[in-house]
Amino acid sequence: MLQWLALDRVSRGPYYAGAVAVALALIACGVRIEPLAPEALPAMSREQAAQWAEPFQPADARLYDLRWTYQTQQGTTRGRAALRFVPPDSVRFDYRAPFGRSGAAVVVGDEILWSRPEEDVDRLIQIAPLFWAAMGIPLDPPAEAGVLGTQVGDVRTWQYAIRGDTLTYQASTVLPGASLRAEMRTGREIVGTADVAFADSVLTPVSATMLFPGSASAVYFTVRGIETLEETDPNIWDEP
Predict the structure, then answer these.
(1) Which of 17, 50, 109, 167 has the greatest count of CB atoms below 10 A from its CB?
(2) DSSP for 97-148, written as a single string
(3) In whole angstroms, what is the distance from residue 167 CA to residue 104 CA?
C-alpha cells in the first residue's frame, strides 16, 4: 500500500539549472571549489555524528519520483527515475533516458553493488555517499573512520576520514531553510559535492545538485513526489 507525502515547495529548477551551468564553467576554467570544513575540526564521538545525521534519515520505506539532468561541457541529457529506499541504507534506482535507454542500480551504504548498464548509471550516481546526500540522507560513520565535527549556531559540520579520503557534511535542520551539503575529498582534492534544498515544513528533499570537478560534470535531481511503502518486493535487489 502506498501513502502520499506532499511536498510543500516547488522545485527551484530554473535557478539551479543556471547555477549548474555557471559552476561547470568555473570548474572548466580551473576555479577552485572551497572546502566545506576548516583545516582542523575537533574530534567528536561516533554517537554524536549519528545523532546529527538521524533527523534526515527516513524511518519508513519510500518511493521517490525523480527528474534528473546530467550536464557536461559537451551537452545535457535529461530523464526521469524511480528510487526505492528501504531503511536503513538500501536503494534501488531505476532510470529512463532519451531514445528508449534505461538502466538500474542497487546501492547499499557506501557501495554501488551493481549497475546496468554500468557506464550510464554510474554517471548519475558516481559516488555513493554523495548520491545518498543528494537524496537528503547523510550516512552514519563507517566503523573504521575517524570522526570530527563542530557546530556554529544552527549549522553543524562533521567529517568522516578514512585512508586519505574524507566525507564532510554541513547541515541545518531549522525549517524553513533547512539545508544539507556534502563533499568528498581524496587528499586535498575535492572529487565531488552535493547541495540539497528541502521542503519548507519537513525535512523532505525537493532538489539537489552534484558537482564533479574532475570530469567537469554535474547531476541535478528534482523530487516530484514521494510515497511511503508498506511492502517492498525482495526481488528488487537481485542483479539482472
Answers:
(1) 167
(2) -GGG-EEEEEEETTEEEEEESHHHHHHHHSSHHHHHHHTT-PPPPPTT-EEE
(3) 25
